[in-house]
Amino acid sequence: MKNLEKIGREAVEKRNFELVDVEFVKEAGHWYLRYYIDKEGGITIDDCQLVSEDISRQLDITDPIPYSYILEVSSPGIERPLKNDRDFSKAVGSMVEIKTYEPFENKKIFSGILKDFSEGIVTVEDKKVFKIPKDSISSAKMKFE
What's the pLDDT at 2? Predict the structure, then answer.
């Protein structure tokens, strides 16, 4: 997976885009290699096509996957995942959904406003304010209001 991420990162960074996420999943009997990309002001379908061509060329050269798959390159969408510190910082003030590995104050799913992110602590308001260590979070994403 690290090699697949490296291939995607090189393709997006040369165009000054951001690699948001990479996933390799099996759905309905088919393997999908998905790259989610973004840029300031939003990504276009033409941007996705250019990056897809760059990634496809590199995948053909390195051939890191020994079986057939479908390559997809798209925007992260309106409910974009929050993966790294930059994502959390940019999402402050927005609606988010956060899931934790273990219950935190008897909850595992928090849906509310991301109030703050600093020093590895995510502060979310879901009826009350919760301060959740980032390493306790299994997944987080923007939430469409």
Answer: 82
